[in-house]
Specification:
Elements: H1 15-32, H2 40-49, E1 53-54, E2 65-66, E3 72-74, E4 79-80, E5 85-87, E6 92-94, E7 99-100, E8 105-107, E9 109-111, E10 120-122, E11 125-127, E12 132-133, E13 138-139, E14 143-145, E15 150-151, E16 156-157, E17 165-168, E18 173-177
Parallel strand pairs: 1-3, 2-5, 3-6, 4-7, 5-8, 6-11, 7-12, 8-13, 11-14, 12-15, 13-16, 15-17
Antiparallel strand pairs: 9-10, 17-18
Length: 180
């Protein structure tokens, strides 16, 4: 029988890492969650304090949940809707002039289903400039969404998206060019 107690090598289990995760959870579930709606600078301050790189005029709502701020990079003029989830076990980078609508789930991890222990496998997410991710879309790990894209509402994106594309559905499929 295979030993199921092994921890994936990427997963830091040191006491200092656990303390950092706990402290972030505490700040996120109190100060950030209950902050006033338009206190963007306040939330950005705390995210930066925990290692996030945030550009000019990034608008993160109090209901946005970020798992690991130290893996988050936001460009200028990035806007988040209500209840966005960023599960960033690996780096999540969102470039300039991106709109992420309400209920979007950016999932930077999956599991190795071929292993009986189902170890966590992190994956980067990259959203390039002038992209709109519509309501309740799911973006999976190791996905790159190129410039000028629209991800339709409730789309499930598990593969990278070409520049200037509109995609939608489950799994997301190419619909048409955004600009003809």
């Amino acid at each position: 029988m295979q030993d199921l107690s092994t921890t994936p090598k990427f997963l830091n289990t040191s006491l200092s890492f656990k303390a950092k995760r706990f402290l972030w959870w505490l700040i996120d579930s109190t100060l950030i969650k209950f902050s006033p709606k338009y206190a963007y600078g306040f939330r950005n301050y705390w995210l930066r304090l925990f290692g996030a790189k945030i550009g000019f005029k990034a608008g993160i709502k109090p209901s946005t949940r970020v798992l690991m701020p130290w893996n988050l990079i936001l460009g200028n003029w990035v806007s988040f809707g209500e209840s966005v989830q960023i599960m960033n076990y690996a780096q999540a980078m969102i470039s300039d002039h991106v709109v992420i609508s309400q209920g979007v789930f950016l999932c930077g991890g999956t599991h190795d289903y071929l292993s009986p222990s189902l170890p966590l496998v992190p994956g980067k997410i990259l959203v390039k400039s002038r992209t709109w991710i519509c309501a309740e879309a799911f973006i999976g790990p190791n996905v790159e969404i190129n410039e000028d894209c629209v991800i339709a509402a409730r789309a499930v994106v598990v593969k990278s998206v070409s520049k200037n594309s509109i995609v939608g559905g489950n799994p997301a499929k190419y619909i048409k060019k955004r600009y003809e």
